[in-house]
Every structure is written in structure tokens, then in C-alpha cells.
UniProtKB/TrEMBL annotation:
Pfam families: DUF1963
Record region (Disordered): 179-255
Biased composition (Acidic residues): 183-237
Name of the featured protein: DUF1963 domain-containing protein
Length: 332
């Protein structure tokens, strides 16, 4: 036997919309019947996940809609499977609260705990709700899912039996979030309002961008972020010294070092960081304490190259560095 779709729809209607903190789960818009069974026999529910401003709780910051696979009811007794779904929905506020980064969450991420059905001691909706409110049990299932995902990724490489060793090699990374500076917006507004009769000296090719640096150490987030400003106005250029943190534009390189390339393709300069300015941040704990760390990559991989080639360079002698113009053939 299988579950009647109308019963599943009624079950979801009793619980949706539901909200925990600044996140709301509801039916997706534009569906006459947001619950249906596919040709393969699986249940799909059209869901919407909305993240609101955590301060006022009213302004929506992000909306993600998705058709979510709920599970295969045909593998279980209908009443027990419906009890699982109801318990899952009752526990949904706790599941939502479990996620540290709601901005990165999709509706499907909330329905990945079907493993509780393997526990025959769970029969009623109350049983499943209690199990899915248990943070230890949720964390255990999350870890099992991560292990399975790693195995799936490593299997084509012949490393499926070495998941733990590979995961232990994960190192800190820095994620940049660029935002347009208010000062630049004001300058552009002034340009829009002015009439230009003649060229008075060309354009500054480097935008003034503000960047927030988030630290990510691989499997777990240790928190902490820093802000990096890249000011390329004339005053900054006049006092600029090689070795300073810089996002985009022209890098500082040793005079005798060729521009980084892969198979004859010139790489694009991304950013350079004064390591002394990063010292003290958890994500920089394994980085050298001094010098300049520079990043280059290929936006379009060369023919026959898997992935995007990357070059990470560490320069210790800042006095040997000089501003290098971006050569023809490399984007900026």
C-alpha cells in the first residue's frame, strides 16, 4: 500500500507556514497542487524558504523555492510513514534552529533525516518529533551524510576508503564578499548629473570596493571576519607602498618574476594580502606571519585542463616588489 497524496497535502497544510527566528518555511507560490507523486512514484512538495531581516523580522532578505523529494513511502507502512512526516514537521523549528548559516540553506536541506525510519522503536508522530528535536541525533545524521558525500566524491579517484585522511587535510580558507562602496556610488551619481565637455585625464580603472573576509576552515566554521578596504584614489596611489592588501587591479610582483600563467594562458590577479594584517585571525593560524600572499586564477580553464588553474604565491621580501601593470591577455 502507499500513502494517498491528499492525506500528505492535508498534513503539510496543517503545519505550514511555520517560522523559527528569521526563517519561514511555506508552500511555494504558483502551484495549484503543491504535493504530488512523480512518475517514478516518489512524493514531491513545492516549498519556499524565506529569510527575513533578523533585526525587524519583516523585510525579506532572500527567497528560495524548490521542489523537494520527501521520501519513498512505499518502503514503509503508510501510517508509520505519515507519522514520520508529521513528526518531522513538528520538529521543524528545532531543525531550522540547528542550521548555523540560514543564508546557505535550501528547502531540501530540511528533509534529509529519513534515516530515523530505520529505528523501529519510533512508531508515532510524537516519537519521530522527539527524535528529530534531539540535537545529538541530528548531528550524528549530519556527520553520516557528510561522510557519505565525501565517499561519493572520492570514489572516482580511488580514495573512497580514505575519507578521514582526506578530510583531515582540509585547511583554512578566506572567502571574500564584495560590496559596492557608498563613496563610489556618490561619485557615479555626480558623474550622471554633470555634463562632460572634454576629457580631463582619463579614468581610474580600479573600483573602490569594500570586501568582508569570512574565514572558513573546511568542515567547521570557527567564526571571525575581517574587513579589507581597497582604496585606489590618487592620494592612496601617491603614498602606496608595495606589499599592502589589495583586491583586483595590478599586483605587486618581484621585478624578475614572469606574470603567472598556465600552459601559456595568463592568469587573472584576484587579490593580495599583507599577512601581518591577517595575524591573529583563526583562519590565518597556519599561514606565515609576514610577507605578501597573492592569488591568481584562470576564469576560463585552458583546453584540456580540469577545473580552474590557480597560483598562490608567497613573497617574503617586500622591498623586492613593484607594481606590475596587467599585461594584454589577462583580465582584471
Amino acid at each position: 500500500m502507499s500513502v494517498d497524496p491528499d492525506r500528505l497535502l492535508e498534513l503539510f497544510r496543517r503545519h505550514l507556514p511555520l517560522r523559527e527566528g528569521s526563517v519561514e518555511l511555506a508552500f511555494a507560490s504558483g502551484y495549484d497542487a503543491p504535493v504530488w507523486r512523480t512518475e517514478a512514484g516518489y512524493f514531491i512538495v513545492a516549498l519556499r524558504l524565506t529569510t527575513f531581516d533578523p533585526v525587524d523580522g519583516v523585510i525579506p532578505l532572500d527567497v528560495r523555492e524548490q521542489e523537494v523529494f520527501i521520501g519513498d513511502d512505499r518502503k514503509h507502512a503508510p501510517e508509520r510513514w505519515l507519522a514520520y512526516v508529521e513528526g518531522h514537521l513538528r520538529a521543524m523549528p528545532a531543525i531550522l534552529a540547528h542550521f548555523d548559516e540560514p543564508d546557505a540553506m535550501m528547502p531540501c536541506d530540511l528533509f534529509v533525516y529519513e534515516a530515523v525510519l530505520a529505528d523501529e522503536a519510533l512508531q508515532r508522530a510524537d516519537d519521530f518529533a522527539a527524535a528529530l528535536r534531539d540535537p545529538v541525533r541530528i548531528a550524528t545524521m549530519d556527520e553520516a551524510a557528510r561522510q557519505a558525500e565525501w565517499r561519493e566524491r572520492l570514489e572516482p579517484l580511488g580514495l573512497a576508503d580514505h575519507v578521514d585522511e582526506v578530510r583531515a587535510m582540509a585547511r583554512a580558507s578566506i572567502r571574500l564578499h564584495l560590496s559596492r562602496s557608498e563613496e563610489l556610488d556618490e561619485d557615479e551619481d555626480d558623474d550622471d548629473d554633470a555634463e562632460v565637455d572634454e576629457d580631463e585625464g582619463g579614468e581610474d580603472e580600479d573600483d573602490d570596493d569594500d570586501a568582508e573576509v569570512d574565514e572558513d576552515d573546511g568542515d567547521e566554521d570557527e567564526g571571525g571576519d575581517a574587513e579589507v578596504d581597497d582604496d585606489d584614489d590618487e592620494d592612496a596611489e601617491a603614498t602606496y607602498k608595495p606589499g599592502q592588501t589589495r583586491l583586483g587591479g595590478a599586483p605587486d610582483l618581484p621585478r624578475d618574476l614572469p606574470w603567472p600563467e598556465v600552459d601559456g594562458v595568463l592568469l587573472t590577479f584576484v587579490a593580495q594580502f599583507d599577512l601581518a594584517g591577517l595575524a591573529g585571525h583563526p583562519a590565518a593560524r597556519e599561514l606565515p606571519a609576514h610577507g605578501l600572499l597573492s592569488f591568481f586564477y584562470a576564469p576560463i580553464p585552458p583546453d584540456g585542463v580540469r577545473g580552474h588553474p590557480v597560483r598562490v604565491l608567497h613573497f617574503t621580501d617586500l622591498d623586492a616588489l613593484a607594481r606590475r601593470p596587467v599585461p594584454p591577455g589577462s583580465s582584471r
